[in-house]
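Field log, afternoon session.

UNIT: design team B
ACTIVITY: writing a sequence onto a fixed backbone
BACKBONE:
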């Protein structure tokens, strides 16, 4: 290991030492006190604590100068716990949906211009799907991406669209920005989306959003495979219903149970 790498690892170790120490001191600690506890020079502690505070992982009291664990840790850990809870609640519904439709079922989250598969249920079928958990797909050519982006705030949605590099994967891929925006508006209005062989030839996908107790879209559910046109309407209703059931398990209470199905 080079000297530079050794120093980088040492810096990380010291930053984690500070974090772990402060996690046991809810009232906070000053730079001098932290240095004495960890055997670090005051300037080193100041440099590392300032960097961590800038990222939100530590907070500095303006009056006392004491450092405490920041809200960023709560945000990061909450997202992780939320995903674990989501996958646990979604799995039984995903299995049932896969059995009913005979299609591969995916659970995904949005990560800026891409979606990430966080769970998958395979089925025995002639058309083999090679997707895997952790795989990333562009938002603009996937049903999951469309439904996730469509349910974000307008400002964020616009920001993400401006960063998309529209590359054609198939002859059906939407590569026109205005057409994509119209597709998102349509998706938002009807509550579901479709990928009509837009990412992979011969593969179609239907997706619907999953919401949490605040009404925020936190993930999306989809079925993927060689979906026949004659089954599309029936499958759309199944996906919407299953996503709604998972949303209820996550604490979401729809304003009305009498929402009209839009196809």
């Amino acid at each position: 290991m080079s000297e530079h790498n050794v120093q980088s690892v040492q810096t990380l170790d010291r930053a984690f030492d500070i974090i772990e120490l402060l996690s046991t001191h809810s009232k906070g600690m000053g730079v001098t006190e932290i240095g004495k506890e960890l055997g670090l020079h005051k300037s080193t502690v100041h440099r590392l604590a300032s960097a961590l505070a800038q990222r939100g992982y530590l907070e500095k009291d303006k009056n006392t100068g004491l450092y405490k664990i920041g809200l960023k840790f709560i945000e990061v850990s909450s997202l992780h716990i939320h995903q674990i809870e989501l996958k646990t609640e979604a799995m039984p519904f995903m299995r049932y949906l896969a059995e009913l439709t005979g299609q591969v079922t995916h659970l995904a989250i949005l990560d800026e211009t891409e979606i990430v598969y966080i769970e998958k249920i395979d089925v025995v079928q002639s058309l083999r799907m090679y997707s895997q958990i952790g795989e990333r797909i562009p938002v603009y050519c996937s049903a999951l991406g469309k439904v996730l982006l469509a349910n974000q705030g307008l400002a964020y949605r616009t920001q993400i669209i401006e960063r998309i590099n529209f590359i054609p994967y198939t002859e059906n891929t939407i590569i026109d920005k205005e057409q994509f925006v119209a597709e998102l508006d349509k998706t938002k209005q009807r509550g579901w989306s479709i990928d009509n062989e837009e990412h992979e030839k011969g593969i179609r996908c239907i997706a619907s959003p999953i919401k949490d107790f605040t009404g925020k879209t936190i993930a999306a559910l989809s079925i993927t495979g060689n979906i026949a046109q004659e089954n599309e309407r029936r499958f759309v209703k199944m996906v919407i219903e299953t996503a709604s059931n998972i949303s209820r398990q996550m604490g979401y209470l729809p304003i009305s149970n009498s929402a009209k199905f839009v196809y």
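LOG NOTE: Strands lie at 58-60, 67-69, 104-111, 114-121, 136-138, 193-196, 204-211, 217-225.
NEXT ACTIVITY: expression trials, pending approval
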